[in-house]
C-alpha cells in the first residue's frame, strides 16, 4: 500500500508551533502572515519569522502554505500584490485563498505560485472545483459539510493532478464553511476578516420582549444551554475511508491551539497514517490507542460531523462550552540530554513536583513514563516543586531526551 500518497497538514500559529508540527510528523504546515488571514488573534508571522519558519520546514522537507483567505473589501487590496511577491521570494509553497478578487491579484503578482482554494469558498461540488482548476488553482479544500461519498464523487470528476484537502480533526464551525455573520452582528468583530469572537460557544437564554431581565433557559436545564456549540471533529479511526475517497491532504484545525495540542494530535495522526499504509491490520488493532492519544490533548467530545451523513442533535454539546482535559502539558525540553549528568534543561509550562509520575512524549518514537526524582532551578539549587510559568529547570532523566520533546502529566 506504500504507493498511496497522502499529506498530513498541520496548523502553525507561531514559530514554536511550526517547529513542533514539523518535528512531530507533519508533511506540510499552514501559517498566517500579519495580513489577509482569518486568525487575527493568533500570533501569526511577520516576514522575518515567516522566512525563518519556511527555512526550518524546508530543511526537514516540509512544505509551508500561507493563508490569504479573507473576503476582501476595496481597501484590503493596497499592498497585497507586493506582499504576495515577498512571500514568494522567501519560499512559501502555496497561498490559501477564498476570494476571487484576491485570487486575481495573486495570479497576476505571482503567476508561478501554487494556489489552494480555502474551505471558506464553499467547495461543495465538482463544478466549482473545475472552475477553480480552469482559473489556475492546484487544490481545493472541500467544505466541511460534505460526506465521504460526495468527496469521492468530486475526486472522480476532476483531473488527477488537482488535489483534494479536507479537515480531519479539530473544532467545527456552526456556520456554513465558516462564513459567519454572528460575531460581526453581536460583537462588531468580523469573522470573515479574521476577528471571530466565537459567539457560538456562548451561553444563551430566552427573553420575552415585554419581560426584560427575565432570562428563561432555551432548554429546561439549570445549567442553561449552548445551542450552537459543536463537538470536535475526529477522523483518526477512519483513515481508510478518507484515503479511499481520494483525499490527499489531511488537515488538522488549530492555529490558535497550544504547542502541546499540535504535537499530540500531529504525532497521533502521523502514526495512524503510517501504520495503515504499512499494514491495514496493524492500523485496525490500534484504533483504541489512536483515540486515547489524541484525547490527551484538550478537546470537546468527538464527532465525525458530516462525513457519514447529515448531523443530528448528537453533534452538539448543550450543557457547557468547556474542554475535556485529561493531561497537563507540564514542560518542554529546551536543551538536549547531557549524558555526563543524566539531566536536561526543561521549560516548565504547568506546575509539577518531585515524586510526580509523568510521561515523556518524544517527537519520534513511543511515549514513556518516569517519576521525577531530582530537579534544580536555574541557579543549580535543588527544588521540590516548579510552580512558576516558563520556569527554567534542570531535571534528571533515566534515558536521553531531545529538544522539543514534551512532558505531560495525567490529571486522573
Structure description:
There is one protein chain. The strands form 4 sheets. Strands 1-2-3-4-5-6-7-11 form an 8-stranded parallel β-barrel, surrounded by 6 helices. A 7-stranded antiparallel β-sheet has the order 17-16-21-13-14-20-18, covered by helices on one side. A two-stranded antiparallel ribbon has the order 8-9. Helix content is 26%, strand content 22%. Helix 1 (15-23) packs parallel to helix 9 (259-278). It is an alpha/beta fold. The longest helix has 20 residues, at 259-278. It contains 11 helices and 21 strands.
List the helices and strands and how they pair.
Layout: E1 7-11, H1 15-23, E2 28-32, H2 47-59, E3 63-68, H3 80-89, E4 94-97, H4 100-109, E5 114-117, H5 126-135, E6 139-141, H6 148-157, E7 163-170, H7 182-187, E8 205-206, E9 216-217, E10 232-234, H8 239-244, E11 249-252, H9 259-278, H10 280-285, H11 287-294, E12 302-303, E13 327-338, E14 343-348, E15 352-353, E16 357-361, E17 368-371, E18 375-376, E19 385-386, E20 392-396, E21 406-410
Parallel strand pairs: 1-2, 1-11, 2-3, 3-4, 4-5, 5-6, 6-7, 7-11, 10-12
Antiparallel strand pairs: 7-10, 8-9, 13-14, 13-21, 14-20, 15-19, 16-17, 16-21, 18-20
Amino acid at each position: 500500500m506504500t504507493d498511496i500518497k497522502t499529506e498530513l497538514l498541520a496548523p502553525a500559529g507561531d514559530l514554536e508551533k511550526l517547529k513542533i508540527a514539523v518535528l512531530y510528523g507533519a508533511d506540510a504546515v499552514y501559517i498566517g502572515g500579519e495580513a489577509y488571514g482569518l486568525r487575527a488573534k493568533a500570533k501569526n508571522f511577520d516576514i522575518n519569522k515567516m522566512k525563518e519558519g519556511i527555512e526550518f520546514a524546508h530543511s526537514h522537507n516540509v512544505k509551508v502554505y500561507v493563508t490569504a483567505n479573507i473576503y476582501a473589501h476595496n481597501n484590503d487590496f493596497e499592498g497585497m500584490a507586493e506582499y504576495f511577491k515577498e512571500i514568494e521570494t522567501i519560499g512559501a509553497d502555496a497561498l490559501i485563498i477564498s476570494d476571487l478578487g484576491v485570487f486575481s491579484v495573486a495570479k497576476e503578482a505571482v503567476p508561478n505560485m501554487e494556489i489552494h482554494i480555502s474551505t471558506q469558498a464553499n467547495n461543495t461540488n465538482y463544478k466549482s472545483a473545475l472552475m477553480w482548476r480552469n482559473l489556475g488553482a492546484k487544490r481545493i479544500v472541500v467544505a466541511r459539510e460534505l460526506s465521504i461519498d460526495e468527496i469521492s464523487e468530486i475526486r472522480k470528476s476532476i483531473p488527477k493532478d488537482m488535489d483534494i484537502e479536507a479537515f480531519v480533526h479539530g473544532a467545527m464551525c456552526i456556520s456554513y464553511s465558516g462564513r459567519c455573520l454572528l460575531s460581526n452582528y453581536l460583537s462588531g468583530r468580523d469573522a470573515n476578516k479574521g476577528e471571530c469572537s466565537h459567539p457560538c460557544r456562548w451561553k444563551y437564554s430566552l427573553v420575552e420582549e415585554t419581560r426584560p431581565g427575565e432570562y428563561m433557559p432555551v432548554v429546561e436545564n439549570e445549567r442553561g444551554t449552548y445551542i450552537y456549540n459543536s463537538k470536535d471533529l475526529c477522523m483518526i479511526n477512519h483513515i481508510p475511508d478518507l484515503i479511499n475517497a481520494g483525499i490527499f491532504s489531511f488537515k488538522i484545525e488549530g492555529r490558535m491551539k497550544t504547542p502541546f495540542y499540535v504535537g499530540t494530535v500531529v504525532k497521533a495522526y502521523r502514526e495512524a497514517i503510517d501504520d495503515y499504509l504499512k499494514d491495514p491490520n496493524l492500523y485496525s488493532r490500534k484504533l483504541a490507542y489512536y483515540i486515547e492519544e489524541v484525547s490527551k490533548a484538550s478537546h470537546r467530545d468527538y464527532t465525525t460531523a458530516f462525513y457519514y451523513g447529515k448531523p443530528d442533535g448528537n453533534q452538539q454539546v448543550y450543557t457547557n462550552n468547556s474542554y475535556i482535559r485529561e493531561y497537563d502539558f507540564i514542560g518542554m525540553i529546551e536543551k538536549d540530554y547531557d549524558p555526563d549528568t543524566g539531566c536536561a534543561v526543561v521549560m516548565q509550562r504547568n506546575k509539577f513536583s518531585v515524586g510526580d509520575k509523568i510521561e515523556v512524549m518524544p517527537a519520534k518514537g513511543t511515549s514513556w513514563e518516569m517519576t521525577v526524582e531530582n530537579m534544580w532551578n536555574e541557579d543549580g539549587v535543588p527544588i521540590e516543586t516548579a510552580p512558576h510559568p516558563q520556569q527554567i529547570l534542570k531535571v534528571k532523566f533515566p534515558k536521553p531526551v531531545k529538544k522539543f520533546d514534551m512532558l505531560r502529566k495525567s490529571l486522573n
